[in-house]
């Protein structure tokens, strides 16, 4: 009988981590692991940091929780100002949450309420990519494009119009430029068929995460989607839950492309594994419209509590103080070179893609046809297990709907040094 009252995915019994420092973790048998995936791409500053602990303790000593409708909250105001500053004032309003799913959920609801407030209640649909991952709550799951996760819930989620994004590894168009043009044309056709005036927002990850193995978009595609949103009068929501707060070498991935969203969801790296904190960043006029219509009908008890915001602030300040973004760029180039050397050596390393310290490695049985390994060979799980055996943690994902290939993510903490990459 299972002695534990907890339930997760079925799987083998797991070791317990006894302690962690920097980019390393040690389990209770003394085995050391290099945290090559930052936990769930969240422990961006590594483990055991005194500065973050001190900031959290200082806030705990003052007060851990106050409720946002009852008291001012200085850490929340300071963190909000810092986040707005990271967008150079392009997104001026901040709504705090405790997770990535909540950040996406908040974006969807704010977009919907904005159009209700503007007298366009028919705008109730969302467009998103397949494959994609936007979270596990029903709204965020509704815009997620990954069949195995969606299947039990399709009847009860909001659903969305799912369109294909660019696939620079597998496309069969004449070249990348024509591929992007075709994908944008197909997207336009799908939106026209659905009725552009029913669309509230387009939701996408500027660089894919675990659902796509860091599949890249590009500037032309993002500019094209921005232009479609402007033409059809809907909002652009970027899901930067995973890419935000420095993961790609910019504070937000959209900054590489010069395409500004109307709403942006971020989480994971903001608390850096020390405390759950996420945020929805929004254009001021959207928020003002909603507030003037009676306020945003949304909120979670623990959202934006002082301890969460003090943690997030300590994370952002540490990154600024230490110039972490430059480290991401330098270590990212080394990691890319190392992964591409693997690709040159082993034909079954089909594709290596990503930016900053967000890299996906796709495995294929045949580099010409790009066919995946037959499921029964289980190579994929064996490689992930072997890496763990050797003391390296990577983030494996076997694609069950055949859309994104079998891949693993290599996403070490952003403070990793040259010796460890
Ligand atoms: N959006 C993206 C792009 C993610 O990668 C994730 C989590 O992996 C989420 C949303 C959901 O975040 P959370 O697990 O914190 O709810």
TrEMBL record:
Listed GO MF terms: pyridoxal phosphate binding; transaminase activity
Keywords: Aminotransferase, Pyridoxal phosphate, Transferase
InterPro entries, alphabetized: Aminotrans_3, Aminotrans_3_PPA_site, PyrdxlP-dep_Trfase, PyrdxlP-dep_Trfase_major, PyrdxlP-dep_Trfase_small
Transferase among keywords: yes
Named cofactor requirement(s): pyridoxal 5'-phosphate
Gene3D superfamilies: Aspartate Aminotransferase, domain 1, Type I PLP-dependent aspartate aminotransferase-like (Major domain)
Keyword Transferase annotated: yes
Family membership: Belongs to the class-III pyridoxal-phosphate-dependent aminotransferase family.
Alphabetized PANTHER family for the sequence: AMINOTRANSFERASE (PTHR43094), AMINOTRANSFERASE CLASS-III (PTHR43094:SF1)
Protein name per UniProt: Aspartate aminotransferase family protein
Organism of origin: Billgrantia montanilacus
Lineage: Bacteria, Pseudomonadati, Pseudomonadota, Gammaproteobacteria, Oceanospirillales
